[in-house]
């Protein structure tokens, strides 16, 4: 387990989760064929956390990328298939369904979880590419679920979103700016999103 994963583990433990890192999911031969990887070894999940009080199971993919340009939204919005290959559980619905179903069955057999947990796939990233990428993710989420409402106005790098019953949200960053974790937390607080959504 690397230092970044240890930070993620500590954060989950502080929220009341029991946590395992480098968790191996034992896929059957048929399941491996079903996801197009008949000769793959056991599927390894970076971090798995379970909180019994609300029967919540979190599967966390950890990408520190502290020494690179960071995680790009293009890996998730379908615009860059090459980048998406690094995030198979996010990019491949069939793989995600098979792996998470087997994980649940495996943990149930061990007596580690209750039946019917709410499973959340999460990404913990140490660096996000740029404000332009964050803006694309906000727009993508808005288009999928209408969460942010509509673009009210755009002037240069300032983009204002309006949502009924909420104050307007202004996103004011130049495309090349990197947005750090504190600012991401502020964006999440102002918009009502969780950091996992960003």
Describe the protein:
- The chain folds into two domains: 3-125, no CATH class; 131-191, Metal Transport, Frataxin, Chain A (2-Layer Sandwich).
- The chain is an alpha+beta fold.
- It has seven helices and seven strands.
- A hairpin with a 6-residue loop joins strand 6 (158-162) and strand 7 (169-172).
- It has a four-stranded mixed beta sheet with strand order 1-2-3-4. It has a three-stranded antiparallel beta sheet with strand order 5-6-7.
Q: Level of helix content?
A: 25-40%
Instruction: Tally the helices.
Output: 7
Q: What's the arrangement of strands in the largest beta sheet? A: 1-2-3-4
Order of helix and strand elements from N to C terminus: HEHEEHHHEHEEEH
Q: What is the count of structural domains?
A: 2
Low-confidence stretches: none
Rg, rounded, reads 18 Å
Number of strands: 7
Mean pLDDT: 82
């Amino acid at each position: 387990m690397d230092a970044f994963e240890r930070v993620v583990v500590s954060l989950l433990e502080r929220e009341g989760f029991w946590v395992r890192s480098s968790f191996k999911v034992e896929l059957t031969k048929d399941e491996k064929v079903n996801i197009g990887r008949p000769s793959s070894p056991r599927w390894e999940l970076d971090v798995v956390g379970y909180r019994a009080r609300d029967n919540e199971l979190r599967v966390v993919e950890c990408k520190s990328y502290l020494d690179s340009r960071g995680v790009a939204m293009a890996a998730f919005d379908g615009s860059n298939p090459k980048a998406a290959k690094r995030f198979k559980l996010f990019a491949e619905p069939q793989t995600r369904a098979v792996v998470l179903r087997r994980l649940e069955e495996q943990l149930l057999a061990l007596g580690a979880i209750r039946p019917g947990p709410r499973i959340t796939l999460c990404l913990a990233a140490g660096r996000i590419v740029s404000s332009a990428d964050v803006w694309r993710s906000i727009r993508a989420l808005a288009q999928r679920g209408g969460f942010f409402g509509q673009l009210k106005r755009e002037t240069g790098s300032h983009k204002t979103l309006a949502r009924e019953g909420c104050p307007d949200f202004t996103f004011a960053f130049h495309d090349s700016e990197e947005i750090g974790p504190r600012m991401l937390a502020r964006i999440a607080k102002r918009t009502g999103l969780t950091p996992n959504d960003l």
